Amino acid sequence: MNLLAIVGSPRKGKATDTLVDKAIEGLKSVHPNCNVKKIHLADQDIQYCKDCLACWKSKTKGPIAKCAIRDDMDQINEEILKTDCLIIGTPIHMAYASALMMTFLERICWTFAKPEKSYVLVKGCPAPRSDKKRKAAIIAVSGMIPPRYKRLCNQATTQIKGVIKDSLNADTVGKLYAGDLWNRGVEHYLDDAFKLGKKLS
Fold first, then answer.
1. pLDDT tens digits along 52-70
2. Hey, what domains does the chain have and what are their CATH numbers?
3. Mean pLDDT of 176-180
4. N- to C-terminal Cα distance for the chain?
């Protein structure tokens, strides 16, 4: 089993990073031989999508369309192709995923998806280029907003879930909203993160 963990926080060793590590620990408690690759998006050279539509127009029969940009997404995409499951963690900024995570999501959308899905009257929605099934867990972290208000301030989980389903054929088997960390502390959510990782098994 190959696990890819994506951390969308600009701060290493803080809440998002810590909870992702705990989820990895949970998965490895069930699959000790799992191959784990963890990527901090802040360490990568990931340029903004140029909206050139090269990937969207691609007619490749392969699992990924080539992006016009050459940067660290080339290597990240190779890791995505190998992975069986994902852990994606992001802090919540203004109710959405961090800018780092949003840039990553934009870059994987049409490279891993083709515009062949339809919803009611809307045609050309993203559908995975590959039939490979993946599983995913999502961790969203808020310093200020407690869990009882997450419906009002957490759009990140819904967006990530949709993108990885449509592009990576990944079913989200679990999610964790870690809220009010300024008062509760990250320790309050460590057990939940561990159990979330176990769900991936």
1. 999 999 999 999 999 999 9
2. 2-199 (3.40.50.360)
3. 97
4. 9
